[in-house]
């Protein structure tokens, strides 16, 4: 398990962390939430589930100044839309 302080050591910077998350464990969790929207509050209140929005934070912190971050966020939105369509 990575501690908060070691995230940048493992991924280099926030951009690389966000890019890695696109292909990691976030997708199965997002599919689960989209497939079971009635349980969204249960998932959101689970203390074992990380809180916050990596895409929202990246948009606020990096997108205004970083073209690669803009591309990562844009791809994330396309992916989220595809997952929504898949679970509809």
Write down how many β-strands occur, each being a DSSP E stretch of 2 or more residues.
0
- Outline, from the CA principal axes? globular
SS-based structural class? mainly alpha
Determine the fraction of residues in helical runs and give it as a percent range: 55-70%
Structure description:
By secondary structure, this protein is an all-alpha fold. The chain has one domain. It contains 6 helices and no strands. It starts with 6 loop residues before the first helix and ends with a helix. The model has no long low-confidence stretch (mean pLDDT 75). This is TetR/AcrR family transcriptional regulator, transcriptional repressor for nem operon.
Question: How would you summarize this macromolecular structure in one to three sentences?
Answer:
The chain is 66% helix and 0% strand. It is mainly α. The relative contact order is 0.15.
Topology:
Elements (H helix, E strand, L loop, with lengths): L6 H5 L2 H8 L4 H10 L4 H6 L8 H8 L5 H21 L1
InterPro entries: Tet_transcr_reg_TetR-rel_C_sf (IPR036271)
Organism: Nonomuraea wenchangensis
Protein name: TetR/AcrR family transcriptional regulator, transcriptional repressor for nem operon
What structural keywords apply?
mainly alpha, 88 residues
């Amino acid at each position: 398990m990575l501690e908060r302080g070691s995230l940048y050591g493992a991924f280099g910077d926030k951009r690389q962390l966000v890019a890695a998350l696109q292909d990691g464990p976030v997708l199965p969790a997002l599919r689960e939430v989209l497939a079971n929207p009635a349980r969204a509050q249960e998932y959101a209140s689970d203390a074992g589930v990380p809180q916050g929005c990596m895409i929202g934070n990246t948009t606020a912190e990096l997108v205004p100044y970083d073209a690669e971050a803009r591309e990562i966020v844009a791809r994330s939105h396309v992916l989220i839309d595809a997952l929504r369509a898949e679970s509809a």
